[in-house]
Every structure is written in C-alpha cells, then in structure tokens.
Design brief:
With 342 residues, the chain is of the alpha/beta class. It is 50% helix and 11% strand. The strands form two sheets. It has a seven-stranded mixed β-sheet, with helices on both faces. A two-stranded antiparallel ribbon has the order 6-7. The radius of gyration is 21 Å and the shape is globular. Bound molecules: thiamine diphosphate (TPP). Thiamine diphosphate binds next to strand 4 and strand 6.
C-alpha cells in the first residue's frame, strides 16, 4: 500500500506549527534554557512515526518534541512541560531535552548517542515481553561518533534486536561540520557491524515512509535491525538563536557583535601563538562563509513545501486541512497558557 501523503502532511504541519509556537514562547522569554527544534526534519520523523503502533517504543535525542507530538502525546502536556509547570508531561522537570512518555514508551535524552542503548534496551524487552513490537532510535550524525551508539548497534546485530536506527544527518554537530570529524562512510560503518543500511532523501516524506515500512516490517518479523540514513536540514541551525544562522539572516546587525570580541581576543597578549590564533580565526570565518551557501537557507529543502506542492492538486481539501491543524495548535497553545479561547 502506498503512503497516504495527506495524513503525513498533517503530521508534519502539526509539528511545524507546534514548534513555531514553541519558538515564539522561547523568544518571548517564557521558556528558559536552550531550545533545539526539529524544524526541517519533519519528513523523517513523520515517515517513521506513522509506522509505529501499540507496544512500539521510541528513543529520542535532544530534538524529541516532534516525534512525541506525532506519536500522539497531548500537545498541552508538552507545552506545560516546556513552560516548567508541575502538571507538564514530566512534572516540569525534564524540559525539552528530557521528555518521557510512559504511555507511548518514549524516552529522550540530551546525552548524544544515548538513543542507541535506550532503543536496544526497549527492543530487548520487546523480544521477551512484546513479540512483534519494535524500537526506533532517532539521532543526529554527530552521535555516530559516540562509542555507546556503536556498542548498541553491535549488540542489536548479534542479538537480532528489532530496532530501527534512524540517523537524521544535517551535516553539523553544533558548529562542527561532521565530515571534518567522521572517518569513512556511515553506511559502510554499520555494514561492518552486520546491519543493513538504507539511504533516503530525508526531505521526501513518502520515500522515508517506504524505507521505514520495509525496515520496520523486517524488524517485526524477527530479521533484526536496520540503519536508515536520511539527510535533512535544520532551519534554525543547532538551536534557537544560533549565531551562524543569525549572521546570515541579518549580517549588518550581527557581524559587529562578533567582529569586536573576535578581534579583541585575537589581539589579547599572552596565550596562543599567532599561528594558532590565525587557525582559530580561519575556523570561525569558514563556518560563517559556509553558512552563506548553506542549504538551511534554501526553501527547496523544506519537506513541508515539497509535500504541499504535490497536494496543491486539491487546493480546497488542502486549505481545509491546514485551517483545521492551525486551529488545533492555537487551541493547545491557549490551553497551555491558561487562556480562555475567544
Ligand atoms: C555525550 C555528549 N557529548 C556532547 C554533548 C554536547 N552536544 C549537544 S548536541 C551536540 C551535537 C550533536 O550533533 P548531532 O548528533 O549531529 O545532532 P544535531 O544536534 O545535529 O541534531 C553536542 C556535541 C552532549 N550533549 N552529549
């Protein structure tokens, strides 16, 4: 059966509007700390999460909000959590990086790579107590250089665990370009552990769905783990307020803010040699210039626009759905803030 693009688009749109609402709360100062959004990776999450059912588990990274929402967790509970209220999803103590849902067997962690052992544990439990159920691990490509993720992939392979390892590869780990710290090829790396790898376009929700379908069916039928490698972009960069993104969005306003302290630290007496200082400066300038050519600036990489283009063949249905999703998210936001709907 082919994927239902309408329902996948609804999942992605819900997530996008939900995360945009979170961004606004964060910019208004109502959410404290860092905020990592998943805007740009919706097609990967929707394509995989739409294949999950009762008894399936998810191990999430520091961008777990979208997956929880798409899985069915009450948006008001998530928002109350992010706002730090005791009636939030985790009693207001988890924040956005440590979200858990017992009901949906979902656990997130801010420790990069921790999704591997968590998913392997969920899958091992499923082998014993929920045969046919699977576990999914969502992580970035930066996590692929963490030992514990490799260890759990190895165990998943030898124990034939029902896991789908989903690598959401945006090419960046904060301000480090992942290719500069990653040896070899990721798909070849997991092949070396005895796990099949499937490469997909992470901006194409139907393609992700097809690949997830095959991999999850494989896991459910006892054939073991699969690695799904999906490329994507993060429209907000690493986290909200990410400096590299701010610079390319508004260079005239932002550049003086970094040029002055950068020059001061470059000229400060003592410390690193001139050669080391020049190398440091080069790293910063390269990061800024590479952001100028950055795919994060290209709306052609937006998974929602890509799906929407196809659905525009039925504009009336599309508009109705979009209005409905918008209403749903506004009403969740109003409830979370304790506002009376007008
Ligand atoms: C074990 C560990 N090391 C370092 C960090 C700091 N850290 C937080 S996010 C991040 C980058 C992760 O990059 P990636 O896995 O590609 O995920 P992305 O943020 O790009 O989605 C790092 C290094 C951490 N949280 N945990």
């Amino acid at each position: 059966m082919p994927p239902d693009l309408w329902s996948l688009y609804v999942l992605m749109l819900k997530s996008r509007l939900f995360e945009e609402a979170i961004a606004k709360l964060w910019h208004d100062g109502l959410i404290s700390g860092e905020m990592h959004l998943g805007t740009g990776e919706e097609a990967i999450i929707a394509g995989v999460v739409s294949k999950l059912g009762e008894g399936d588990a998810m191990a999430l990274d520091h961008r777990g909000t979208a997956a929880l929402l798409m899985r069915g967790v009450d948006p008001v509970l998530i928002l109350r959590e992010l706002l730090g209220y005791p009636d939030g999803l985790c009693g207001g103590r988890g924040g956005h990086m440590h979200l858990f849902s017992k009901e949906y067997l979902a656990a997130s962690s801010g420790i990069v790579g921790a999704e591997g052992p968590t998913a392997a544990g969920f899958a091992l439990a499923a082998q014993y107590s929920r045969p046919g159920a699977v576990a999914v691990a969502f992580f970035g490509e930066g996590a692929m250089n963490q030992g514990m993720l490799m260890e759990s992939m190895n165990l998943a392979s030898v124990w034939n665990l029902p896991v789908l390892f989903v690598c959401k590869d945006d090419g960046w780990a904060i301000t480090t370009q992942s290719e500069s710290v990653t040896g070899g090829n990721l798909n070849a790396r997991v092949h070396g552990l005895g796990i099949p790898a499937v490469e997909v376009d992470g901006g194409d929700v139907s393609e992700v769905w097809e690949a997830a379908h095959g991999a999850i069916e494989r896991a459910r039928s006892g054939q073991g783990p699969t690695f799904l490698h999906a490329r994507c972009v993060h429209f907000e960069g690493h986290f909200l307020g990410f400096q590299l993104i701010r610079i390319v969005r508004d260079p005239l306003r932002e550049i003086p803010g970094i040029a002055v302290p950068l020059t001061q630290s470059f000229l400060r007496p003592g410390g690193a040699t001139l050669r080391e200082r020049l190398a440091g400066l080069k790293t910063v300038i390269t990061a800024v210039f590479s952001t100028l050519r950055d795919p994060r600036r290209d709306s052609a990489n937006d998974p929602l626009s890509r799906a929407r283009k196809i659905l525009q063949s039925d504009p009336v249905r599309l508009q109705e759905l979009e209005d409905q999703v918008e209403k749903e998210i506004s009403s969740a936001l109003a409830s979370a803030l304790g506002e009376v709907p007008s």
